[in-house]
Amino acid sequence: MTALSDLQGCQSRIDSGWSFALAPLLTAAIDSALGVPAPVGSPAVISAQASGYSKASATFRQAAGKLDDVARSKLPAAWRGDVAETAGQAVSALSEEATDTAAVLSQAAEALQA
């Protein structure tokens, strides 16, 4: 099994162990999830990967800000009516996806640095 599949199994056990009767199983599942080993590789390589994720996160945040600006001001100024509204919604959705991607990359960077 891989670390990911181990964690997914632990998550399933945690999600199903919400009752007081299953508290010991929940505790065991949490302990099992916490026992997943650190990533394999040299600390320098792992740190470099974390730095790459941080830079990618910053790039996505910058892109999200620019997309948001386009959706809120530039499209409505250039187009009118339903077309402007639809295009604005589509670009806003892209901005939100870029923001979500930035958050995930930032979390990955933090986890690798830890």
Query: Poorly predicted ranges (pLDDT <50, ≥5 residues)?
Result: none
Task: Provide the number of structural domains.
Answer: 2
- Alpha-carbon distance between the two ends: 23 Å
Question: H/E order of the elements?
Answer: HHHH
Strand content: under 5%
CA-atom Rg in angstroms: 21 Å
CATH class of the largest domain: Mainly Alpha
Account of the 3D structure:
With 114 residues, this protein is mostly helical. The chain has two domains: 1-37, no CATH class; 41-114, Helix Hairpins (Orthogonal Bundle). Helix content is 83%, strand content 0%. The chain has helices spanning 3-16, 23-34, 43-78, 81-113. Helix 1 packs antiparallel against helix 2 (23-34) and helix 3 packs antiparallel against helix 4 (81-113). It starts with a helix and ends with a helix. The model has no long low-confidence stretch (mean pLDDT 81).
